[in-house]
Design a protein that fits this description.
Layout: H1 3-17, E1 29-33, H2 37-48, E2 52-56, H3 88-96, E3 101-103, E4 108-109, E5 112-116, E6 119-121, H4 143-150, H5 174-180, H6 185-192, H7 206-221, E7 227-229, H8 235-243, E8 254-260, E9 263-268, E10 273-276, E11 278-281, H9 285-288, E12 292-294, H10 299-307, E13 309-310, E14 313-321, H11 322-327, E15 333-336, E16 342-347, E17 353-361, H12 366-369, H13 373-387, E18 396-402, E19 414-415, H14 420-428, E20 435-437, H15 448-467
Parallel strand pairs: 1-2, 1-11, 5-15, 8-12, 11-20
Antiparallel strand pairs: 3-7, 4-16, 5-6, 8-9, 9-10, 13-19, 14-17, 14-18, 15-16, 16-17
Helix pairs in contact: 2-8, 2-15, 10-14
The structure holds flavin-adenine dinucleotide.
The site of flavin-adenine dinucleotide has 38 residues, from helix 2 and helix 15.
């Protein structure tokens, strides 16, 4: 008898014993590929339904794109950062697992100043800055708020409107939309300088920007501040992993996924072979490209996996004590069109250390990519010191994180090119027999961390429907 038949017989026996109770396939085994939020939440739910869950993870750590830099004073986040007050699933898990949260308002953050074409400005002086290229009527809108301002009359009424086809006519290049709003090429270049939703605005779907603005509005409408885990957001996935019945199989990437009548088999890089009745694959698309599927996936799904791009994102994590920060000449947090992009400055409660995250998006990362970590970090600092000479020797570089060079993510999140939502979104979560797909990039209503959790719930339900 094959293992699957044995399981079926076992399930029948269980059914006989459990008659009248929910028809869960007790004893069925599910493989979860990836131990980020989506994979760990999927495994947690499976265990709650009486399934055996095996989680396999490429990295030596869990959490994926949730990464707290514990070795740096102030524990800055290198990945998933702000937890919306409307992140119901994530907050419920954190509460169940005893991960303490605090309001982001408890953290001192410094107001944003601007450095455009080398000219400094404050929110107040921006209107009259000689580097302000915006047309009359927009002059007072600061560069960091310009996108949201121009997109404020958006048509996304329900959370999933962006991907259900009703707004397909807006799945077009964002650049053309902004040109139509009176921005010239110089203003568009400014707007695109720190675009987080495409490597350029010509490559960014307007609909994906509307989705983002609508998501932020929903979070704000909740009327409560964003949150963060007191000891670092990575404590949430760590707690989920620790509570699983089986430890995560870490440091062993899946390289082949084979599906057949009996279920699914995974081959890992070490030679390990894992078999299960179903699988949920939660890994970012660029990592998914590296997995061989046997038999191959349908054409449109393959095309979706191969063509959806991820945002390039470089972060340099700096620290300064209070005296050095004050003498650095830096005005606070910063939004610039200089090579180093943006600076986010924060000081956690009770700490005397300022954490400064230099945050570089999209094609602006290219300038540093050819360099190894140490040189890239030094080059970023030199670019910053060229603009702020007093900061030299006052800021210390503690870590460089380049998500797009990391083989297990190859970018920070999925970005949608014009036309791609309509063409590819649905294909991303089409099950291939017993193989189901989850992860942030497959979420309907939320994006980011809660999107990862939402996607896990959807994929678990799909599996429950087939195995119960
Ligand atoms: C810089 C940054 C800032 C962010 N800020 C926010 C924010 O403020 N708010 C918010 O809500 N979200 C934010 N996010 C997004 C959020 O962190 C992610 O959407 C979420 O964590 C993704 O979870 P996931 O489970 O879908 O994917 P991942 O976390 O990427 O998990 C997938 C896992 O699969 C593993 N894997 C890859 N390949 C293989 C393989 N072959 N075999 C086995 N395992 C494999 C990976 O190592 C990884 O652990 C941010 C992300 C980044 C990078």
């Amino acid at each position: 008898m094959t293992r699957r038949r044995l399981l079926a017989a076992g399930a029948l026996a269980a059914w006989a014993m459990w008659r009248g109770r929910p028809a869960v396939a007790r004893g069925a085994r599910v493989l979860v590929v990836g131990a980020g939020l989506s994979g760990l939440y999927a495994a947690r739910l499976f265990e709650q339904f009486g399934f055996e869950a095996i989680v396999v993870e490429a990295r030596e750590r869990v959490g994926g794109r949730v990464l707290t830099l514990d070795a740096i004073e102030g524990r800055p986040e290198a990945g998933g950062n702000l937890i919306g007050a409307n992140y119901g699933r994530l907050l419920a898990v954190a509460a169940q697992s005893g991960v303490e949260m605090r309001s982001a308002d408890a953290v001192e953050t410094l107001p944003t100043a601007y450095l455009i074409d080398g000219e400094p400005a404050s929110a107040r002086s921006w209107r009259d800055s000689t580097s302000n290229p915006l047309p009359d009527g927009l002059k007072t809108v600061t560069p960091d708020r310009l996108g949201a301002f121009l997109l404020r009359d958006h048509p996304v009424r329900n959370a999933a409107d962006w991907c259900n086809g009703t707004l397909a006519h807006l799945d077009v290049a964002a650049r053309n939309f902004f040109l139509g709003r009176g921005l010239d090429a110089v203003a568009i270049a400014l707007l695109g300088a720190n675009n987080g939703y495409g490597n350029t605005l010509a490559e960014t779907s307007l609909l994906s920007l509307y989705r983002t603005v609508a998501g932020i509005e929903r979070a704000i409408a909740f009327g409560r501040p964003t949150l963060e885990a007191v000891a670092g957001n990575q404590r949430v996935p760590e707690a989920m992993a620790a509570e699983l019945a089986r430890p995560v199989v870490a440091g062993d990437p899946v390289i082949v996924l084979e599906r057949g009548a009996d279920g699914v088999a995974a081959a890992c890089r070490s030679g390990r072979r894992l078999e299960a009745d179903a699988a949920i694959v939660t890994i970012p698309l660029p990592a998914l490209r590296q997995i061989e599927f046997r038999p191959t996936l349908p054409r449109v799904q393959r095309e979706a996996i191969d063509s959806i791009r991820y945002l390039k994102l470089t972060q340099a994590h700096l620290v300064a004590d209070r005296a050095d920060w004050t003498a650095s000449g830096l005005p606070g947090s910063l939004w610039s069109n200089a090579p180093f992009g943006r600076l986010f400055v924060r000081r956690p409660p009770g700490s005397d250390t300022y954490n400064i995250t230099v945050w570089i998006n999209g094609d602006s990362c290219d300038r540093y990519d050819a360099l190894p970590d140490r040189e890239a970090g030094t080059r970023i600092l030199e670019d910053l010191f060229d603009a702020y000479p007093d900061a030299r020797d006052r800021l210390r570089l503690r870590a460089l994180v380049r998500w797009h060079l990391d083989p297990w993510s190859r970018g920070s999140w999925a970005v949608w090119a014009p036309g791609q939502i309509g063409r590819h979104f649905a294909a991303l979560h089409e099950p291939a027999g017993p193989i189901h797909f989850a992860g942030e990039h497959t979420a309907y209503a939320y994006s980011g961390m809660e999107g990862a959790m939402e996607s896990a719930e959807r994929a678990v339900l799909e599996v429950l429907r087939t195995l119960s």
